[in-house]
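It would be a great kindness if you could assist me with a short task in structural biology. The full record is reproduced below for your convenience:
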Amino acid sequence: MTEFRLAAAAALAMALTLAAAPAAHAADGGGPLKFSLGGGVTSGGDNLVAGSGAEMDAGRGLQLFAGAEYWVAEPLALQVNLGLQLDRRKAAGGTLRFQRFPLELMGLFAVTNNLRFGAGAQFVFGAKLHGSGDASALDQNYRHATGRVLEGEFLINPHSAVKLRFVKENFTPASDGAPKIKGDHVGLMFTHYF
């Protein structure tokens, strides 16, 4: 099963679960469905351009995301996020940009009204390294990747939260014979729920 089919099957399973679940209430007493916007910084991963004299880590960058969360039954919630993860660096005589689009499906468990832990899957699409100027020879496309996510979230108030997360993933270059690159990273995120 390709990663795209796996992501589609996971999204369908989540939609069916949400449709069949009884209405629950979020920790703030509001309705069971909430939307979110967020972003943060990530760090980690192997150097995508090892041996070139440049440095571009596979897990480093800025991440922005939008999503939805549904409280199935207290203390359990399901969350889906679609994001953009991007890093841009100067290289000798040019620039490097690594971008990808992560889709995350998460299950969350509320320990208290302010503390939650989550785990889930991350499906990465459109991973691409782009070089300009003298770094244009470093261009590389990567196959779709599937990773795992663990996170802890502290809700500052019912609408604002800070997350610390760990993502384990590998990137496989689209060109045959190239080695896998570890994209494992940690991230510090801020999320606004509405």
